[in-house]
UniProtKB/TrEMBL annotation:
<dbReference type="Pfam" id="PF23357">
    <property type="entry name" value="DUF7088"/>
</dbReference>
<keyword id="KW-1133">Transmembrane helix</keyword>
<protein>
    <submittedName>
        <fullName>Uncharacterized protein</fullName>
    </submittedName>
</protein>
<feature type="domain" description="ABC-type uncharacterised transport system">
    <location>
        <begin position="156"/>
        <end position="385"/>
    </location>
</feature>
<keyword id="KW-0812">Transmembrane</keyword>
<dbReference type="InterPro" id="IPR019196">
    <property type="entry name" value="ABC_transp_unknown"/>
</dbReference>
<feature type="domain" description="DUF7088">
    <location>
        <begin position="45"/>
        <end position="125"/>
    </location>
</feature>
<dbReference type="InterPro" id="IPR029062">
    <property type="entry name" value="Class_I_gatase-like"/>
</dbReference>
<dbReference type="InterPro" id="IPR055396">
    <property type="entry name" value="DUF7088"/>
</dbReference>
<dbReference type="Pfam" id="PF09822">
    <property type="entry name" value="ABC_transp_aux"/>
</dbReference>
<feature type="transmembrane region" description="Helical">
    <location>
        <begin position="424"/>
        <end position="449"/>
    </location>
</feature>
<keyword id="KW-0472">Membrane</keyword>
């Protein structure tokens, strides 16, 4: 009997030892797999806890280490654990860029460091990359990624905004102006400068010339300066509205573009409850500006662009609008009756509304974009569809920075739960009446069954 007990104890020890060894091996294996292979799922609303593909591509263009310094106290009266909020946000970027370092400095405990850094707000962020710095006072993907775009640019990109002829203002606040677009350009590292053709002897080649729908006739000498700029290989964005070209016909001829009289009418616009003179573009050419671009863009009061043959330009149609529409050469006043297609005078869709041109001048690629609507980038219409994205892509390509894709804020879906009266009645009946009755009947049945036994 003693020998049997001894043998049993020995077997029990062996089993315990094997179990312990296997358990340790399992824990070690799981730890190794967790360290080497990380899999994450974002099940948050609208994927708020993961980066957009544009931000990921941007991080991958940054070769050197990125340093983020946050000047924040342990707790904030309004935001609470501000360090935790920022740390969680930056960790999403660190998954893509492991050499992104995060450092916290308490401005209360270390006031000299905060003062020397010029910090004024609790939670202010300083991002450093290649001896350059950017500051942020708000934390979201749009603001952070735009700061990275500015850091990635080796120099400020200049936009020369033609003025003196009633052009749309890049800093204007009216519905017609381009102030919101200009603000977005400034956030991503562009610098806009008003330029008058009456002052300097010629247009400088260091930047992109923007001609935004002049309202009065340009002088012959002014047009000559633009043509000389074009001959030297200058880059150009030309926004053209319906009506007169105001002296810029020689420019159109030089580019080999014919502007059809009339305005584009799009019956599909009515289905979206917007005027039929808002041409909807859904077809895009194969070009860097429109690569992976699948948004609807809106070109209000647009005109058709026709490309002539026999020029030295490489041309690409960037956007075609109104596939079921036409160019209306008559009146578009709805008070005069329904606008209909006239086979004899009108041009059927789809219709080209934006084109890109390029050629090589003195071993450098010259880039031109012409759009048949200045309204599509105006304050009153910039928020429609993908207008802002298309406009930013145009400017980035003209400036030679097509790799920098604009980062747009991600909309937060409505988290409110709206229930109808019938749904509320069903929920109340189910939880307050039916479920208690089920439990009560179940309890009575169990009690009756036990008593019978």
């Amino acid at each position: 009997m003693a020998r049997f007990n001894k043998k049993l104890r020995l077997r029990s020890r062996w089993q315990s030892g094997i179990f312990t060894a296997l358990f340790l091996i399992l824990v070690g294996t799981l730890g190794y797999l967790a360290q080497e292979f990380r899999i994450q799922w974002d099940i948050s609303q609208n994927n708020r806890n993961s980066l957009s593909q544009a931000s990921i591509d941007l991080l991958q263009t940054l070769d050197d280490p990125l340093h983020v310094t946050v000047y924040a106290t342990q707790q904030d009266l309004q935001l609470g654990d501000i360090r935790g909020i920022i740390s969680n946000f930056i960790s999403v970027y660190q998954r893509i860029k492991p050499d992104l370092t995060l450092n916290f400095i308490d401005p209360v405990e270390q006031p000299q460091q905060a003062q020397s850094a010029g910090v004024r707000l609790n939670g202010e962020i300083v991002i450093s990359y290649k001896q350059r710095k950017e500051r942020l006072t708000s934390i979201n993907e749009q603001a952070f990624s735009n700061a990275l775009v500015r850091l990635a640019r080796t120099e400020k990109k200049q936009l020369l905004i033609l003025s003196g002829h009633g052009e749309r203002k890049m800093d204007g606040i009216t519905q017609r102006d381009l102030g919101n677009f200009g603000k977005k350009l400034q956030e991503t590292g562009f610098e806009s400068t008003l330029f008058s053709l009456t002052d300097p002897p010629e247009i400088p080649d260091t930047g992109v010339l923007v001609i935004a729908s002049p309202q009065i006739e340009l002088l012959e000498g002014e047009v000559k300066k633009i043509l000389d700029y074009l001959a030297r290989g200058g880059n150009l964005l030309w926004l053209v509205d319906i009506g007169s070209l105001n002296g810029l016909l020689p420019l159109a001829e030089k580019l080999g573009i014919v502007f059809t009289p009339g305005v584009i009418v799009d019956p599909q616009a009515n289905r979206l409850r917007v005027p039929t003179t808002f041409a909807l573009a859904t077809r895009y050419g194969a070009h860097a500006v429109t690569e992976n671009f699948d948004y609807i863009t809106v070109f209000p009061f647009a005109r058709q662009l026709i490309l002539e043959e026999g020029t030295d330009w490489h041309r690409t149609i960037l956007a075609e609008a109104a596939p079921e529409g036409w160019v209306e050469t008559g009146s578009t006043d709805s008070s005069e009756g329904e606008i209909t297609f006239d086979e004899e005078n009108d041009v059927s869709g789809p219709i080209s509304v934006a084109v890109a041109l390029s050629r090589v001048v003195e071993d450098r690629e010259q880039r031109i974009i012409v759009a048949g609507s200045g309204h599509f980038l105006a304050n009153g219409y910039l928020g429609n569809g993908g207008n802002l994205d298309l406009g930013m892509n145009m400017i980035n390509w003209l400036a030679g920075d097509e790799a920098f894709i604009p980062i747009q804020p991600r909309a937060t879906l409505d988290s409110q739960l709206a229930l109808s009266e019938l749904q509320l009645t069903l929920i109340v009946t189910g939880f307050l009446i039916i479920l208690p009755l089920v439990f009560l009947i179940g309890g009575i049945s169990i009690n009756w069954y036990r008593k019978r036994r």
